[in-house]
Design brief:
Protein name: rRNA cytosine-C5-methyltransferase
Distance between the termini: 59 Å
Largest sheet: 8 strands, mixed
Number of domains: 4
Structural class: alpha/beta
Low-confidence stretches: 1-9, 304-321
Pfam family, one: NusB
GO molecular function, one term: RNA binding
InterPro entries: MeTrfase_RsmB-F_NOP2_cat, MeTrfase_RsmB-F_NOP2_dom, NusB-like_sf, NusB_RsmB_TIM44, RCMT, SAM-dependent_MTases_sf
Radius of gyration: 25 Å
Number of strands: 14
Keywords: Methyltransferase, RNA-binding, S-adenosyl-L-methionine, Transferase
Strand content: 5-15%
Shape: globular
CATH architecture of the largest domain: 3-Layer(aba) Sandwich
CATH topology of the largest domain: Rossmann fold
Helix content: 40-55%
């Protein structure tokens, strides 16, 4: 693995050096911090304290990058984007420590200067030292109040402008969240702040393979603290530690999966279908396979164990054998299709096929249920991808909307009369959630929108909420899940 390394001799704190290497990889190569950081840690001998510090500095600095650059811009005589990138990343780490940690100011400045010397040489040391001393003075003067430091607009005058500054999000994302929450600035702030909290690791105990209780017991046996959720019957919360140490995870009996992803899949499985079933469920965009595996297990768990029970037949004909539920998972990309296939291992009535969901290799009107978890901006999982808020743009969403509509149309064509489609995104953005659904449904007289809030699978997580239907939007600050969106659509049988 190629990583940025020190160019000159010098002593740098190992935790800060590791965080700097991740920031350089993100900046130079577009790396993902949630993949790069564990990979680098695996090759270092760091104490638990240093591992924790490296994690905090990496994720915190990436999430707050806009704020950090703003603060640096108030104390430098040149634009921050003209500073040599390796030096700039070190300054970001130093500024984050001054703003958001308990590291004493003198230690934050000195350790960052050491980092600059070790990674960039002696020449920029004086500049880095001067900049960070000015930042430390400004933080002390304002008591670290970001709104004061960056002269944020008054929240009553410009709510979006204020939230952009104090929550370290691009303005367009703040506008999206405000729109999704009907302009409620307090709720929007809570939602945006939740993107900066470290999410609890959610596990799924795959039905038919292992129970949630057994998974909790297994975690205890290897020294991990875990507890069952009260929402998904298959969800287990892991309070720290490496889930890869669990035998069930290594065997594919359990996996890391956000509870929101579990709930939307279970909502589809729980919707009653109308008319004679075909037994076929299709996951139209299955990669990497977590929802497909949960669907396969949940649908099979709801069926009688025997596969040869008689089913109704036409007069004068012998009864037909009732077919077990079958799941077909489609994924066009080879690598992701391989992940889907691995997730479905152990489910004999589930298959993976490499295919574009817009052109499914299945006869139209034959599926009981179709899950279409469309490619989206991922704005609902920003807490898991700290650099994503600065990479995504409104143009990314605009480019995805036509694909999302095409996939939903394909799903509706594939489902039989009386069957159900679940349209799912990991985003709260109305343009790729409710607006996609309504644009397609307005052109389809054969489609009815179901009230997803009435799903038995969602009763617990939605209890006490007053959100209007018929769609469901989960939120990290309200439900502890990623911001998953769900619409349930039935193809009319009349």
């Amino acid at each position: 693995m190629s990583v940025a390394t020190p160019r000159r001799g010098g002593a740098a704190d190992p935790a800060r050096l590791l965080a700097w290497e991740v920031l350089r990889a993100v900046d130079e190569r577009g790396a993902y911090a949630n993949l790069m950081l564990p990979a680098l840690m695996a090759g270092r001998r760091l104490s638990s304290r240093d591992r924790g510090l490296a994690t905090e500095l990496t994720y915190g600095s990436l999430r707050a990058m806009g704020t950090l650059d703003g603060v640096l811009g108030t104390v430098t005589s040149r634009p921050v984007d003209t500073v040599d990138p390796p030096v700039r990343d070190a300054l970001r780490l130093g500024t984050y420590q001054l703003l958001s940690t308990r590291v004493p100011a003198r230690a934050a400045v000195a350790s960052t200067v050491d980092l600059v010397r070790a990674t960039c040489g002696e020449r920029p040391v004086r500049f880095a030292n001067a900049v960070l001393r000015r930042v430390a003075a400004r933080v002390e003067e304002t008591e670290g109040d970001i709104a004061v430091l960056l002269s944020a607009p008054d929240v009553d005058v410009d709510p979006a402008g204020h939230l952009t500054v104090v929550t370290a999000h691009p303005r367009w994302i703040v506008d999206v969240v405000l729109d999704a929450l009907d302009g409620d600035a307090a709720a929007a702030r809570a939602a945006l702040v939740a993107n900066d909290t470290r999410p609890t690791v959610h596990l799924v105990a795959r039905p038919g393979r292992i129970s949630a209780d057994e998974l909790v017991e297994q975690a205890a046996a290897v020294g991990l603290r875990a507890r069952r959720s009260v929402f998904s019957p298959y969800a287990v919360y892991l309070d720290g530690g490496d889930p890869g140490t669990l035998p069930a995870v290594r065997a594919g009996e359990a996996a890391v999966q956000d509870e929101g992803s579990q709930l939307v899949a279970l909502a589809l499985a729980a919707v009653p279908i109308v008319g004679r079933p075909t037994g076929l469920t299709v996951d139209l965009c299955a990669g990497p396979g977590g929802k497909a595996a949960l669907l396969a297990g949940a649908l099979a768990a709801d069926q009688p164990p025997a596969a040869d029970q008689p089913s109704p037949s036409r007069p004068g004909q012998p009864p037909r054998a009732e077919r077990r539920p079958r799941l077909l998972a489609l994924e066009p990309r080879a690598a992701r299709a391989g992940l889907v296939e691995a997730s479905l291992a152990g489910f004999p009535d589930a298959w993976t096929v490499r295919a574009d969901g817009r052109l499914p290799p299945v006869r139209p009107g034959t599926a009981d249920r179709v899950l279409v978890d469309v490619p989206c901006s991922g704005l609902g999982a920003l807490r898991r991808r700290p650099e994503a808020r600065w990479r995504r743009t409104p143009a990314d969403v605009a480019a995805l909307v036509p694909l999302q509509r095409q996939l939903l149309v394909a799903a509706l064509d594939l489902v039989r009369p009386g069957g159900v489609v679940a349209y799912v995104t990991c985003s709260p953005h109305p343009e790729e959630t409710s607006e996609v659904v309504m644009a397609v449904v307005r052109q389809r007289a054969d489609i009815a929108i179901l009230d997803a809030r009435r799903s038995d699978a969602l009763a617990g997580v939605l209890a006490g909420t007053s959100a209007e239907g018929p769609f469901v939007q989960l939120w990290p600050h309200l439900h502890g899940t990623d911001a998953m969106f769900l619409a349930l659509l039935r193809r009319r049988s009349d």
